[in-house]
Amino acid sequence: MAASGTYTEALSSGGNLTITSRNWSIEYYFPGPDLRYKGTFVSVNERDVKDHIQAFQDNWAEYEQMRAMVPNGTEVEKKGQSGMVIRVGGYWPGVSLRSYHMPLSGRGQIDKVIADYRYALDRAPAIQKFLASI
Fold first, then answer.
1. Where are the domains of the chain?
2. Could you report the per-residue pLDDT of 23-73, keeping only the tens digit for each?
3. Which pTM value belongs to this model?
4. Which residue in 5, 11, 75, 102 has a CA-CA distance of 20 to 30 Å to 91?
């Protein structure tokens, strides 16, 4: 915990749970492909975490349907729920959090992210209560 009253904890699926006494979020930083490009920050605010859990589940189901229907060697991309991208074939197949960032192409990967989001929903209120008391 920093002196600013902010608590940050790394999540096992990537990103950080960042909590203050007033709000919390799950934050990601995706570096550019090389030093010529800036990195990208993505933040999932506390009010959006439950929606993201459902979106990961629904987008994964859509990905599996698309994968079964799309011929091999074909690339198809579709905008999913909560700003996510569903992509079959080509680069970064699977369900991506944003654009091509954090492509999840296995059910285990989706389950791990969802578990972290549920963990954040449970953990954040206790940390907020502690931060508010100091």
1. 7-128
2. 999 999 999 888 888 999 999 999 999 999 999 999 999 999 999 999 888
3. 0.91
4. 11
